[in-house]
Amino acid sequence: MYINTTGLILRETAYKESSKILTVMTGGEGKLTVTAHGALRRNSKVAAVTQLLAFSEMTLYSRRDRWTLTEARSVEQFIGLRSDISLLALGAYFAELTEAVADEDSPNPELLPLCLNALYALSEGLKTPEFVKPAFELRLMAISGFAPLVESCFICGGGISGRAFLDIAGGTLSCAGCGGSGFGGVSLGIGAIEAMRHIIGVEAKKLFSYSLGPPSQRELADAAEGYLLAHLDRGFRTLDYYKGIQL
After folding, report:
1. d(CA 220, CA 215)
2. What is the arrangement of strands in the sheet containing 164-167, beginning at the earlier edge strand?
3. CA separation (Å) from 196 to 16, 54, 180, 227?
């Protein structure tokens, strides 16, 4: 069976002498494991389209539940990422996150656009890494079914209009009056809280259409990363590398 689809390379692994095993996030079929025969050969026609973070139109062939790349045409290479090691590292982190939450052969129509939009914003310099990273992390959690509850105080049910505390493990907010800090909460100002609400609930094309001052941006970044790591219950080597080269 042949299918035509679009796909983003989330991971590439050398296979035998001249081939690759690819993890591909596709538009219609979800995450797939695909063999790209001859991708490592000199002058291979699929060398460029089988690189990490390459986005292409692909023709795939399935036999005995195994997918093989037969043809591909490059759509976007995100050149801006490939000329900046820090941006490339952050893009690789996004790819590793996407691979972690996606199920094999199980479509999630929001995952691929989220990743593409974040990579494009970084590549074109539309938003800074400090802005894109927490937005990607929180939105990824939301579309994967792990959205934190940030509309009201989880303890008293009242609205929140000032500083509050995010329970990283529980994914809930508590107002200052309910003493959330006593339960290990992360303190957030109303700016960071409103940004979280925006990221979780806004339509996809408006994900990055908010603004924050530096202090609130730092609060948001710490909360988003901490929340994601707690709920996925694992570390990410690409995140460690990205942080390491910021020093």
Report:
1. 9
2. 149-153, 172-175, 164-167, 186-188
3. 45, 29, 18, 12
Contacts for 206 with CB less than 8 Å, ≥ 6 apart:
none
Question: What beta strand segments (E) does the chain contain?
Answer: 2-15, 19-26, 31-36, 55-63, 66-76, 149-153, 164-167, 172-175, 186-188
What does the DSSP 8-state code read for residue 206? G
Torsion-angle region of residue 233: left (phi > 0), alpha (psi -120 to 50) or beta? Answer: left
In this structure, what are the phi and psi dihedrals at residue 199, rounded to the nearest 5 degrees? -60, -40
pLDDT tens per residue, range 39-92:
999 889 999 999 999 999 999 999 888 999 999 999 999 999 999 999 999 999
Dihedral sign of CA atoms 155, 160, 164, 169 in order: positive
Residue 105, pLDDT score: 74
Cα–Cα distance, 133 to 9 (Å, whole number): 19
Residue 110: which H helix or E strand, with range?
none
pLDDT in tens, 83-142: 999 999 999 999 999 999 999 878 899 999 999 999 999 999 999 999 999 999 999 999
